[in-house]
Amino acid sequence: MKIIILGAGQVGTSVAESLVSEANDITVIDQEPERLSHLQDTLDLRTVAGNAASPSVLAEAGAADADLLIAVTQSDQTNLCACRIAKTLFNLPTRIARVRSTDFVQHPELLDEQNFAVDFSLCPEQIVTDYIVKLVEFPEALQVLEFAQGKVTLVAVRAFEGGPLVGHPLQEIRTHIPQVDARVAAIYRRDTPIIPEGDTIIEPGDEVFCLAATENIRRVMRELRRGDRPVKRIMIAGGGNIGFRLSRAVEERCQVKVIERDKRRAGWLARHLNDTLVLNGDATDERLLEAENIDGMDMFLALTNDDENNIMSALLAKRMGAARVLALINRRAYVDLVQAGEIDIAISPAQTSIGTLLAHVRRGDVAAVHSLRRGAAEALEIVAHGDAKSSQIVGRRVGEIKLPKGVTLAALVRTETQPEAAASGALGWVPGHRVIITHHETLVAPDDHVIVFAVSKRLVPKVEKLFQVGFGFF
After folding, report:
1. Partner residues linked to 123 by β-bridges
2. For residue range 319-348, what is the model confidence (pLDDT) as tens digits?
3. Contacts of 260-267 spanning 24+ positions with Cβ under 8 A
4. pLDDT at 416 over 80
5. How crowded is residue 229: how many other Cβ atoms within 10 Å of its Cβ?
6. Does domain 233-352 sit in CATH 3.40.50.720?
7. What angle is formed at CA 262 by the lines to CA 257 and CA 263, rounded to 5 degrees?
8. Per 3-state DSSP, what percentage of the chain is helix, strand, and coil (rounded to 5)?
9. What is the pLDDT of residues 132-184, one digit of tens each?
10. pLDDT at res. 177
11. Domain 2-122, what fold?
12. Structural domain 354-473, CATH architecture
């Protein structure tokens, strides 16, 4: 696939890294030659220096025969203009734009074919906010990811000494929670992936990925570690876009304090938040944290734009008694360095938001993609098409499918027509969804949404090929 990426910032670089390894022809446009030079030194791609919304620059990048435009510069206006130009002048087939302003969310008609011609828009700040909200709801988890419009949940938890299943083989999970069907999709032990089998024993410190129907996921998590106390008191360092969105999302059910260094921004936050206490100060000020009872906080979230500040304030908050700390970190090397240390959770904004974009790039009918373990692994929701003759998946039992090593078919979501009584007493039929945790004998049916776990993103092209439908089907 020939892809043009506009913007070589954190998001653009992460997209390029993810896609260039999959044999795509990538061209990156940016106005800063230094960024482009660094990209060319590390990745096999082409770069063009210039204004991403300039017709001549887009032409130089090969827009005339490109398949996909991904506009992820810092400027909404540049991204939207580039999509319109790509459609009008080059008839470029698919156009994706990063849009940060809520104005465009409130007026989606501005993005349609007659206006800015954006096929899909994404707001990384809102994606990261939604991601953190889930971690507030599940304080025991390292990651919480949803599939099939929220019907299936995948969680990553750190197994603790004393958990009911810790030190026991996985096959005993049915004995512990007989009414709940669940699947351990993968285990990482000292950063090494382990493909789970029935006799695999979970050890303390293992990073375990569990998947179950959403209504059952909390019971599954309790088998692996003790339940943390619910998050009721939160302190947020940084009142930028993510800090503000998060405060607004949780202030009705939690006591929220926001520390913002900039006085004018702090005033703006105080006016636009209802039940949040806004403090003008420095989150690395030990006296301020002590005065605001940091030792009584269930969760401290460092969400400024400065990686070093986030790391230092999170470490300080943990040392002073905060129950759980989270830091937003842009540099991937820093994320890997601090994760699983004194900082409970380190989040890379680019890696967190990239999955939403990848769902529109992956080959085949991909409904969702989630990047796992800071981009090292992936979980995909793929719709199975075809029949037993044209597909390597449909009409086969899971045990018969030749899966690449490191790939797990963890669950299916199947649409089934169910009877429902109408007000008149007549019996009607309405579509419903059934979550099926897969086992060796599970049969894959046409149009099943299949949740696939790949321990390495290098396996994703093999997964895509597995789900391809032969020409005979058409």
Report:
1. none
2. 999 999 999 998 877 777 776 578 999 998
3. 261/304, 265/239, 265/240, 266/239
4. no
5. 9
6. yes
7. 85
8. 35, 30, 35
9. 999 999 988 889 999 988 899 999 988 888 777 888 888 888 777 777 888 88
10. 78
11. Rossmann fold (3.40.50)
12. 2-Layer Sandwich (3.30)
**CB pairs under 8 A, 24+ apart, for 277-286?**
278/239, 283/237, 283/238, 283/259, 283/309, 283/313, 283/317, 284/309, 284/312, 284/313, 284/316, 286/316, 286/320
- d(CA 152, CA 154) in angstroms, rounded, equals 7
Residues of the chain with CATH 3.40.50.720: 2-122, 233-352
The string of pLDDT tens digits covering residues 208-238 is 999 999 998 888 887 776 666 789 999 999 9
Where does the pLDDT of residue 191 fall: very low under 50, low under 70, confident under 90, or very high at 90 and above? confident
Task: List, in sequence order, every residue forming a beta bridge with 258; answer none if it has no partner.
Answer: 236, 278
Cβ(270)–Cβ(248) below 8 Å: no
* Per-residue pLDDT tens digits for 20-76: 866 789 999 999 999 999 898 888 899 999 999 999 999 999 999 999 999 999 999
Q: What is the mean pLDDT of residues 246-258?
A: 96
How many C-beta atoms surround the C-beta of residue 257 within 10 A?
Answer: 19
Structure-token match 């304090």, residue found: 257
Whole-angstrom distance, CA of residue 401 vs CA of residue 393: 7
Which residues touch 276 (CB under 8 Å, ≥6 apart)?
A: 247, 248, 251, 256, 257, 258, 269
Q: How far apart are CA 410 and CA 413, in angstroms?
A: 11
Instruction: Give the pLDDT score at 190.
Output: 84
Burial 108-122 (b: 16+ CB within 10 A, else e): eebbeeeebbbbebb
Which ranges in 282-331 belong to alpha helices (H)? 286-291, 307-319
Q: Do 173 and 223 meet the contact criterion of CB atoms below 8 Å apart?
A: yes
Segments of the chain assigned to CATH 3.30.70.1450: 354-473
DSSP state of 295: G
**8 Å CB contact between 210 and 143:** no
- The angle at the Cα of 470, spanning 65 to 463, to the nearest 5 degrees, equals 75
- Token look-up 């419903």 returns 432
CA end-to-end distance (rounded Å), the chain? 22
Taking the CB of residue 328, how many other CB atoms lie within 10 A of it? 28
286 pLDDT above the threshold of 80: yes
Summary mean pLDDT of the chain: 88
